[in-house]
Amino acid sequence: MREIVAPFMSLRGVCQLFLLCGVHLLFALPFSTMVFIPGLTNLRPVTALMPIFGIFFGPAGAWGYAFGNIAYDVLSGNVAISCIGGFVGNFLATLIFWLLVKRITKNDRVVGSLSTCLAYVGISVGASIAVGISVVSWVFFFIPEADAVYLFVSIIINNTFFFIMPGMALCILFSTEFKFAPYTGKKASPPPHGHEEESCIEGRQEPV
Amino acid sequence: MAAEGPQMNRFQANICLICVTMCWSVEVILLKNIPTEIPAFAVVCMTNFIGALVLGAAFFARLKKMHLSRSLVLNASFLATLSVAFNVLATIGLRYLEVSTGTFAQMMTLVIVPLALFLLRRSVSPQRWAGIAIVIVGIFIALGPSVGSIDLLGITLVLSSCVIEAVYLIRLNACAKKADPMQLAVLLLALISLFSGIVWAVFDPWSIPALRLNAAALASLFMYSLFICAIAMALNIFAQKTAAVQDTIVIYALQIVFSTIFAATLPDLLLEPVPLTAFAVIGCSLVCIGNIVSEFDYQKYVKAVKAKRQLWLDKRGSQ
Questions:
Q1: How far is B21 from chain A (nearest CA, A)?
Q2: Do B11 and A114 lie within an 8 Å CB cutoff?
Q3: Is the pLDDT reported for residue B82 higher than 90?
Q4: How many CA atoms lie within 13 A of B45 on its CB side?
Q5: pLDDT surpasses 90 at B115
Q6: Shortest alpha-carbon distance between residue A57 and chain B (Å)
Q7: Computed from CA positions of residues A132, A134, A138, A141, in that sequence, does the dihedral angle turn out positive or negative?
């Protein structure tokens, strides 16, 4: 729990969170015209960033993605009650990637073998279902006239597709070519000698 | 301090190449939203230009530190020329052929690349040859009984484009192993944009001032630039640093499998649905089997099984 709120405990954590939120908006806004269900959902290629945010930035990535998603809904004029579900769902889904990062990492290699690849696909489906349930439950209670089943299926297909393509390959590229290390959160526990500022910035680029 | 960390292995390179192939398969969905009156080379010019800008901006700090060598510029110019040339030939040639015949003829790159490697005295293992043969049979079956109606001019143009594409792929694979992949990707996108812009200006100059784009078309162009130009090009070049060219072309053949799956499953909102036929299922299965035959590392698998067996025997003996 402490690690999940850690990004708000330091200035660098908050800056990182805003930066990730900005990156999300930069990739999301150009596609706001590709609508699946007017007012509820559209084609979101930005979903490909979710595994990257979760695996390499941990809780800061999860907050950044969730806030980015709600800012996108506001800026693209898609404000609805389901946005709250979207916030919760996207936060949880990004967090799932972080929590299960060990399943997709073997010998410091992200998705480097068939078993980790299958684990990644399984996690992607699980994360998509988390987003789907979270959004659809709000829609089901507050917008009963909406087609909840179609919305659920479209969210799962949209998310799983972009998690795998190009999400998986981008994760490989981030770890092998851009030398990002998966966020393990090991240094997130209180540091002994007053290095609080560094406590929540793990998982970023290693020194080159 | 030098950056430490794992290098991309063969499995990861193959995943990246599969992802590139999937990116290319969604091309038709994106092109659906771009008005048909916009010439093909205008789309190539604009999307590659935006792709180069996006990659250049995202990796500006990395690119700024690098020296732009003369040999890299020459290599990238040569590759961009080849890319535009095979696209021009294929675009013109495909007008003379039926869709299925044209698609099958385009897949001849699969045969030409290993033949070219053979002529260059580079070995292609029997495992790869077997994989390629199965893939070609799979594509032939997937396209159905309509393959065969041949127009001589069309087939000559498409086959010429395949030869040039094969040279492009072999050269790109060699360059990716020497140059910095990001530098090569940005330069290549920029030069392809420039050269296709020249082709656009020569073949259809009046469409330049008449260009009008709505919001949906702009979003599609941006998505095309991001996924098919920037991300796919970067992934492709990074993966080719590790992958051999003969592996690359076998994985590229999966495009027909992804296109068939998308056409059969995606809602008509995104794509005109095409029902699955028995020919398509058998053909696509053969393409997948060909990929497995070509890419599966049998020796490593046999070694791992033997090691496990030995471990089990040792354990049993000690008990």
A1: 10
A2: yes
A3: yes
A4: 16
A5: no
A6: 17
A7: positive
